[in-house]
C-alpha cells in the first residue's frame, strides 16, 4: 500500500530540527541532575507558566488529538463536553482545593500521599497498579505512533519504535522530569502552529460557522440541547455527562493521575503549584478550536466522510486526511513534527512518572529502604532504561495482538475512576481511616470490573458504549465512596495531629498571595465563568 | 550560554534551581522553522499551493513563526539583561 502522505527534504529537515533541539535540551540539563529531587521533581524549581503548559500538554497527546478530531466528526459540537464540562472544573478544583495538601505536605508522589493519609496497603495498591499501567501505556503509544507513521508515511514499524524509544531514553536519562516537561512545553507550541493552518483553510473553504450551520445536521451543532433525546449523537443523558464524565471521570483523571499531578509538584512554590492547573485551564478551553473545527470540516470537504461513505468511515483517519488535503510540503512537515512531538512527550511523561513511582514507592519502600539519595538517583536512571525497554517490548506484543490494546485501556479505566472518591474523603473528611481507604479503593476497582462484565454479557443496557463508560465510572466512584465511609465507621481512627497538613480543617490555611492578581482563586473563578459562558453559547 | 541559573524561590529556601531558560530553545527552534518555511515558500511554484486554496502558506506561516520565535528570543535577552544589572 502506498503511503498517504509523501514528505520531502524540507519536511524531514523540520522533523530533524525538533529531534536535535530535544536532545540538546536533555543534554544541557544533565549537569543539574545531582539529587533525586532534581531528577524526579525538577528540583521543585520551575515557574508556573512552564508547569502549567506542561500540565496541559501531558494530556494533549497525539492519540488524544486524533481521537478528539474523530469524535468531533462523529458526534459534532457535543465533543466540547470533554473540555468545558469534563476538564475545566476538575482543573480549577485541583488548583484551589487539593494542591495545598499535595504540595504542602511535601509528598513526592500521589501514592506517597495515600500512605501518609491512609496506610501502606493503600499506597501499595495504587503504586503497583499505576506503575504497571504507565509503563504499558507508554508501549501502547509507541506502537500507535509507529503504526500511524507506517500507514501514513510508509516508515518501517521497527524503525519508528526503536528510534522513538532511543530519543526519549536519551533525553529522559539525561534530564529526568525537566526534560520531559520542557519537551511538553515545546510540543504545546508545535501542536498549535502545526494544526491552526488546517483550521483557517477549513473555515475558509466551508464558509465559516455559517457554512457549518447551512450544511450540517442540527444535532451536530449543539452540545446540550439534544442530550437525552434520540437525535443526540452521543447517546448519553444528562446524568451520564454531568456525573459520569464531568464529575467522576474528569476529577479522577485530573486530580489523582500522577502523570499530570507530577507537573504541579515540580513548581517552585505553593502558589506556582496551585496556579499550574489553573494556568493550564485557559489554553485547555481553546483546544476545541483545533479539534472540533477540523472534525466538522472533515465531514464537509473530505469524500471519505460524504453522506454515502459515512457508515464505513474510519473517523480516526480524519486528521491525517485533512493534513493531506490542505497542507503543502513544508507545513506538512511541521504538522507531522507536532504529532511526533506529542507522541514522544506522551511516552516521556509515562516513563518519568514510572521511574518516580518505581523508585520512591516500590523500590525505596519495599525493596531497599533507607539508602542514600545518590543510590536512589541511580536507581531512577536505571528504571528509565528499564521502563523504555518494557515499552518497546509492549509495543511488539501489541503489534502481534492488536486487540490487546483495547483490553489494556479498558483495564486501566477500572483503576482510575474510583480513586477520586478515596482522595475526596481523604482530603476533606478526617474520619476516613486507613483500612476504610484501602477497602473502598479495592471495592471501587472491582465494581468497575463487574459492571463491565455485566454490560458485555448483556445484563445491563446502555444507548452507547460511551454511556456505559460514563455510568461505569459513576458506580465505581459511588462504591468506593460508600465502602470507605462504611469501613471507616468500624475501624480505628487516626489521631488528629497525625493528619495535620493532609486533611482540610486540620491544616493551617495557605497564605494567599499578596497581590490579588497572583491569587489562584481569582483566576480559577475566571476560568469557571468563561467555561459557563462558552457552554451557554454552544448549548 | 543557553543556561541561566536562577536562585530558588526564597520561600522554599532550597539550593539552586536548574532553570534552563526555555524561551531560548523555543525561540531558536521557531525562528529557524520560520526562516526555512519562508525561504522554501519563496522558491516554490504557485501550483503547489492549489491545495491550500491558493495561499502561499509556507511564506505566511513562516513569517508568523519567525515573529513568534523572535518574540521569545527578545523576551529571553531582556530578562538576561535585567538579571545582569
Element order of chain A: H for helix, E for strand:
HHHHHHHHHHHHHHHHHHHH
Q: How far is it from the N-terminal to the C-terminal residue of chain A, by CA?
A: 43 Å
The count of β-strands of chain A is 0
Poorly predicted residue ranges of chain A: none
The description of the largest β-sheet of chain A is: none
Our Rg estimate of chain A from Cα atoms comes to 23 Å
Span of the ends, CA to CA of chain B: 17 Å
Structural class designation of chain A: mainly alpha
Number of domains of chain A: 2
- Give the CATH H-level superfamily of the largest domain in chain A: Sodium/glucose cotransporter
Give the overall shape of chain B, derived from the CA principal axes: rod-shaped
Q: Quaternary state, please?
A: heterodimer
The CATH class of the largest domain in chain A, by name, is: Mainly Alpha
Largest sheet of chain B: none
β-strand number of chain B? 0
Structural class of chain B: mainly alpha
Q: Supply Rg of chain B.
A: 19 Å
Helix proportion of residues of chain A, in percent? over 70%
Round the mean pLDDT of chain B to the nearest integer and report it.
Answer: 76
Amino acid at each position: 500500500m502506498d503511503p498517504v502522505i509523501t514528505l520531502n527534504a524540507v519536511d524531514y529537515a523540520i522533523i530533524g530540527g525538533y529531534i536535535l533541539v530535544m536532545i540538546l535540551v536533555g543534554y544541557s540539563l544533565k549537569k543539574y541532575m545531582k539529587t533525586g529531587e532534581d531528577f524526579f521533581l525538577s528540583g521543585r524549581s520551575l515557574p508556573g507558566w512552564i508547569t502549567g503548559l506542561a500540565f496541559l500538554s501531558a494530556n494533549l497527546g497525539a492519540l488524544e488529538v486524533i481521537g478528539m478530531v474523530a469524535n468531533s466528526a462523529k458526534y459534532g459540537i457535543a465533543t466540547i463536553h470533554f473540555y468545558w464540562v469534563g476538564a475545566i472544573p476538575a482543573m480549577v478544583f485541583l488548583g484551589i482545593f487539593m494542591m495545598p495538601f499535595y504540595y504542602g505536605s511535601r509528598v513526592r508522589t500521589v501514592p506517597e500521599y495515600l500512605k501518609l493519609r491512609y496506610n501502606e496497603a493503600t499506597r501499595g495498591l495504587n503504586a503497583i497498579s499505576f506503575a504497571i499501567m504507565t509503563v504499558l501505556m507508554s508501549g501502547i503509544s509507541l506502537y500507535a505512533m509507529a503504526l500511524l507513521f507506517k500507514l501514513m508515511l510508509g516508515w518501517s514499524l521497527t524503525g519508528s519504535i526503536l528510534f522513538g524509544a532511543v530519543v526519549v531514553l536519551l533525553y529522559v536519562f539525561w534530564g529526568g522530569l525537566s526534560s520531559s516537561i520542557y519537551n511538553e512545553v515545546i510540543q504545546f507550541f508545535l501542536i498549535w502552529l502545526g494544526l491552526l493552518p488546517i483550521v483557517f483553510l477549513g473555515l475558509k473553504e466551508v464558509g465559516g460557522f455559517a457554512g457549518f450551520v447551512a450544511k450540517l445536521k442540527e444535532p451536530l451543532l449543539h452540545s446540550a440541547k439534544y442530550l437525552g433525546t434520540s437525535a443526540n449523537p452521543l447517546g448519553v443523558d444528562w446524568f451520564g455527562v454531568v456525573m459520569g464524565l464531568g464529575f467522576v471521570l474528569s476529577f479522577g483523571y485530573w486530580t489523582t493521575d500522577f502523570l499530570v499531578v507530577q507537573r504541579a509538584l515540580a513548581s517552585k512554590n505553593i502558589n506556582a503549584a496551585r496556579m499550574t492547573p489553573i494556568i493550564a485551564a485557559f489554553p485547555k478551553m481553546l483546544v476545541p478550536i483545533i479539534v472540533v473545527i477540523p472534525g466538522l470540516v472533515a465531514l464537509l470537504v473530505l469524500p471519505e466522510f460524504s453522506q454515502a461513505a459515512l457508515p464505513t468511515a474510519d473517523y480516526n483517519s480524519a486528521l491525517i486526511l485533512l493534513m493531506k488535503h490542505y497542507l503543502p510540503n513544508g507545513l506538512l512537515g511541521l504538522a507531522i513534527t507536532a504529532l511526533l512531538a506529542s507522541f514522544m512527550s506522551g511516552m516521556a511523561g509515562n516513563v518519568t512518572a514510572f521511574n518516580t513511582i518505581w523508585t520512591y514507592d516500590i523500590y525505596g519502600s519495599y525493596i531497599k529502604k533507607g539508602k542514600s539519595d545518590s543510590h536512589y538517583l541511580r536507581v531512577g536512571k536505571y528504571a528509565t532504561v528499564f521502563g523504555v525497554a518494557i515499552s518497546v517490548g509492549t509495543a511488539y506484543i501489541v503489534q502481534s495482538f492488536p486487540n490487546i490494546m483495547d483490553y489494556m485501556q479498558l483495564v486501566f479505566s477500572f483503576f482510575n475512576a474510583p480513586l477520586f472518591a478515596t482522595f475526596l474523603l481523604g482530603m476533606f473528611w478526617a474520619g476516613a481511616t486507613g483500612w476504610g481507604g484501602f477497602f473502598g479503593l479495592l471495592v471501587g476497582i472491582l465494581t468497575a470490573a463487574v459492571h463491565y462484565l455485566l454490560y458485555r454479557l448483556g445484563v445491563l443496557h446502555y444507548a452507547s458504549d460511551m454511556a456505559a463508560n460514563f455510568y461505569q465510572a459513576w458506580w465505581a466512584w459511588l462504591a468506593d465512596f460508600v465502602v470507605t465511609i462504611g469501613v471507616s465507621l468500624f475501624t480505628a481512627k487516626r489521631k488528629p495531629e497525625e493528619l495535620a497538613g493532609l486533611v482540610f480543617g486540620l491544616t493551617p490555611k495557605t497564605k494567599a498571595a499578596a497581590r490579588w492578581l497572583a491569587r489562584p482563586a481569582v483566576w480559577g473563578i475566571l476560568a469557571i465563568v468563561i467555561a459557563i459562558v462558552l457552554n451557554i453559547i454552544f448549548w | 550560554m543557553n543556561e541561566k541559573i536562577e536562585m530558588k524561590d526564597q520561600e522554599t529556601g532550597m539550593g539552586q534551581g536548574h532553570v534552563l531558560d526555555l524561551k531560548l530553545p523555543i525561540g531558536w527552534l521557531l525562528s529557524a522553522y520560520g526562516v526555512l518555511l519562508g525561504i522554501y515558500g519563496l522558491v516554490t511554484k504557485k501550483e503547489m499551493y492549489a491545495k491550500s486554496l491558493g495561499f502561499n502558506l509556507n511564506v505566511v506561516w513562516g513569517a508568523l513563526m519567525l515573529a513568534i520565535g523572535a518574540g521569545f528570543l527578545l523576551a529571553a535577552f531582556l530578562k538576561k539583561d535585567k538579571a545582569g544589572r
